[in-house]
Amino acid sequence: MSSPTAVFEHAYYVGGQFATILYGVQLVLFFATLRAFRANSDARHRKSDRFFAVYSTVMTLLVTVDVATNAVWGEQMWITSRSQPGGVEGFIATETSVWYETLSSTSVVALIFMSDALLIYRAFVLFASNYLIIVLPVLIYLAAFALAIIELVIAGTPNGNFFGTRAASFGVPYYALTSISLNTLLTLLIVARLLTLARAARASMGAPAARLYTGVAALMAESAAPYAALGIMFLVPYARGSDTSIAFGQVWAKVTCIAPTLIIYRVLTRRAWDAGTVSALTGERKHAGAGVESTAMEFVSRALETGVSSTAKGSKSQIGEMSKMSEKDVETGYGSSREELTPV
Fold first, then answer.
1. pLDDT tens-digit profile of 212-236?
2. How many other C-beta atoms are found inside a 10 Å radius of the C-beta of residue 230?
3. Taking the chain, what is the end-to-end CA distance rounded to the nearest angstrom?
4. Where are the domains of the chain?
């Protein structure tokens, strides 16, 4: 006769394997981000660069806590407790609220809120610092935060269960607010804005040069679309009380870290949209001073289209770097972190 916990055990195991692979992806992205940060000389650091580097580090530490605690819990479940009274079934029934699993759940919730905060900030930047755009996302964010605290308290009580009925009564509306309402809203806003900016970029720069900012890879990375999609994939079985939700939850937790780290990597390598590139195309926000500083788009466009000295403000060495950019880098939006695209 099949064990009543068989589905949960299979889902936990499969989810853990995919989660481990994604954790490796996160580590590669994280070290690439640090390399990009160190590649910039102190004179070329933006004020936000150090903050983003720290932000990425904190998120990587949080996802490491999640991976480590889940591994320990799996070892205790399948190896240590197998020969004890109650076996695996007894362990699952009584040890889901053990302190290190509560720590794991807390680290994932913290990851979600850090990721959502970054998406709200990115929407704010893309819409030229328009506070009206982020009013609704911020309200949803605060409501989700309150529900998350209640869910963690219930799950952390003796005999509590993060996937149990009591915790789920707060968890379902919490994840509905984050993965459906907030993430979907922000993704749609960012995608719509990027498509609008893409038309302006192609008109002013030409299609080849604009691909760095408007290609499919750039669109997926900037909008964190996989993060929103996997959040919905987790919410459906979680709301139905299915044991398979643990597999989707483990995968989503890792993508929760990967998506913002990828955005931060693009920011540090000057491949992300920023206030300068947005204002240069739309004129929605002017820089202080006599004129607008040259942006990454100006350097890429002139270097790729003319290959000669530019009239934009900047050193000849910077323009020379742009002219050496490969066509592959332009089409994908990635490439060597040494190829700085924005003078600061």
1. 565 666 777 777 888 888 888 998 8
2. 21
3. 67
4. 6-278, 279-332
Q: Does this model's pTM top 0.85?
A: no
Residue with tokens 């195991």: 13
With helix as H, strand as E and coil as C, how does 279-315 read?
A: HHHHCCCCCCCCCCCCCHHHHHHHHHHCCCCCCCCCC
pLDDT digit string, tens, across residues 122-142: 999 888 888 999 999 999 999
For 6-278, the fitting CATH number among 4.10.410, 1.10.3470, 3.55.40, 1.20.1070 is 1.20.1070
Q: Give 298-319 pLDDT, tens digit per residue.
A: 434 443 444 433 333 333 333 3
Q: 284, 128 in Cβ contact below 8 A?
A: yes
The 10 Å Cβ neighbour count of residue 94 is: 14
The answer to whether 268 and 53 have CB atoms below 8 angstroms apart is: yes
| DSSP category for residue 264 | H
Sequence-distant (≥ 6) Cβ neighbours of residue 343 within 8 angstroms = 44, 293, 294, 299, 313, 314, 315, 318
Determine the Cα–Cα distance for residues 46 and 272; give it in Å rounded to an integer. Answer: 14
191: exposed, middle or buried (C-beta count within 10 Å: 0-12, 13-18, 19+)? middle
Determine the Cα–Cα distance for residues 2 and 12; give it in Å rounded to an integer.
17
